[in-house]
Amino acid sequence: MKLSSQLMGMSVLSKQGMTLLEVLLVLVIVTMMVGFTIHGGEQIRSQMSAQFSLKRSILHHQYAQIKALTDQRDMFVLYDLVKQEQRVVSAEENIFAEQYSDLKVKVAKQRYHYNSNGEVNQFNTLVFEDNYFTYRLIMHIKWGRIRIEKTERFPID
User: How many CB atoms lie within 10 A of CB 93?
Assistant: First the structure.
């Protein structure tokens, strides 16, 4: 009789659910998993946005080069490091401008000139940074070929 009452008591205990310690342990594990997911997702979103801005910058240079060839007129790509802005202009008109929000322009010549043959006037390296990487756009003289180099940054916080 004692044995059956002990077994009944054990079966009653197993139906009560999780103890407070078990609930806290599960809560800590879930919180850590969510925290890692949000932080990792933010880094990926930031990198994707920076790469998109970088590709747009390259497209602006290619647009200026093609426009110079097709219209047989000089085109310019201008950088303003204070405003963090890139503009594509001709001698007659301002074609478009774009400001950088996710990417910071660190080093750039103020003006890149594409002549009526589509040739860029100078060899140069543009340097862009985001929170995690430094990007270098290396511009080759003559036909304006652009090469990208990416290096990881280690910011000190």
Answer: 7
Q: Which two tokens stand for residue 112?
A: 């890149």
Q: For residue 126, what are the contacts with CB-CB under 8 A and spacing of at least 6? A: 57, 79, 105, 107, 108, 136, 137, 139
> To the nearest 5 percent, what fractions of the chain are helix, strand and coil?
40, 30, 30
Residues in Cβ contact with 42 at an 8 Å cutoff, skipping those fewer than 6 apart: none
Question: Which residue type, as a one-letter code, is found at position 99?
Answer: Q
Of 148, 153, 120, residue with least CA distance to 136 = 148
Residues forming a β-bridge with 96: 88
Tens place of pLDDT for every residue, the chain, 157 residues? 555 555 555 544 455 677 888 889 999 999 888 887 777 677 778 888 888 888 998 899 999 999 999 999 999 999 998 999 999 998 888 888 888 888 889 988 888 898 888 888 778 888 999 888 899 988 887 777 888 888 887 756 5
